[in-house]
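In this section we walk through a basic example: taking a raw amino acid sequence and producing a predicted 3D structure, encoded as discrete structure tokens. The instruction is simple. Fold the sequence below.
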Amino acid sequence: MTDSKALYLGLDLGTSGVRAVCIDGQGQTVAEADGGFVDDDDARDPGGWQAAIFGLLDDLARQIKLDRVVGLSVDGTSGTVLLCDDAGQALSPSKFYDEAPSIEATNQLMDIMLEDGATVPPSLGRVLDLWWQDKPAEFNIVHQADWIAGMFCGRFDFSDQNNALKTGFDPSTNRWSFDTRFLPFSDAAMPRILPPATSAGRLSKLASQVFGLSPDCQVYAGTTDGTAGFIAASGLDLLEPGTAVTTLGTTLVIKSVSPMRVDVSNFGIYSHRLFDNWIAGGASNTGGGALLRHFTVEEMVELSTQIDPDVETGLDFYPLVSKGERFPVNDPELADRTSPRPDDPALFLAGLLESIARIEKRGFDLMQAYGVPYPTLVKTVGGGSRNDVWLKIRERVLGAKVIAAEMTEPAYGAALIALRGVRAQ
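The resulting token sequence is shown next.
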């Protein structure tokens, strides 16, 4: 049983800023704070991350008593890495998820990938590029979330299953997907992998003094920002097969809880381990960006009032943000198909919304063919979640209940991970 006065803190490091959410035992938000980075260099600098987190905690301290926090967890951008020593001192700059590893690193790692057809983990390639700069004899490989979490618990030798995925960890076997003895540096640098919501230790004495947090506060292994966002949208009670989360932003991204791991590289389907299940997902090149090629946001709001979501349009489009598609169709030459365009703009918009819903359904059908249960509930995040007409169209096309998610912030998902960790003790 959790203490009624206890609070749970989630910290999120994104590409443009940081955010903190503190919740109670019922999952209700009691305090939150956010902050941006000064510039792009600051966003990529570990010192910038640290300063931003300090600012968040100062803000939270004006809202709540931080010594009530009994658990905290951190999420960060997937694939961002750096090297540090045992005290957490950075031994390299960071390498962000959008920085491709060098050809030299990729070629060297290909030589140690023992299985035919094995792919080089991109984050491991970034690590090798960082190591080559000074070739330290002893160091720790940490992801963005690991390094911030280590700032609180004082250890920098661990990561979680989700962040470690792009560094070559196989969560289905709980082992690295390659023989670490063949690395050009000591395999002691590789992090120990913990499932999300597993305690990495109590708050360090120094962190307790600096931040005013209780020394009994536990730091729990976190996750990537994308997985934290999924947890925020679904909630802890719905993390079971049959639940899916669709992001309707510039593009369309679907993720669904699965009892089994599903990875289909041809269609860009891959899975993250999440507690007792998996999250399988894929991203289509359709979405809000394709709609904006024809209408402004204001026009879509107005025209949607003229659409009956229960009536089929008879139109068959494949709207794309740009040429090419990988999921649920693998065709790099696939072109945007939005003609013939009817004279009635409301009918045209309805046809576009309906067509994107069919692409979404095709995605869920494809994943079902590979073993992912078809969803009975789809929670939606992103700009498209605010269009009630589109939600109803999708509900008709998908044959599943579709609702807008109440919570979408990855920081809230990280707070839920801390809550789950405390509950499991």
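Looking at the output, two observations stand out. The domain at 7-227+411-423 is CATH 3.30.420.40 (Nucleotidyltransferase; domain 5). The chain has a mean pLDDT of 94. In the next section we compare this with other chains.
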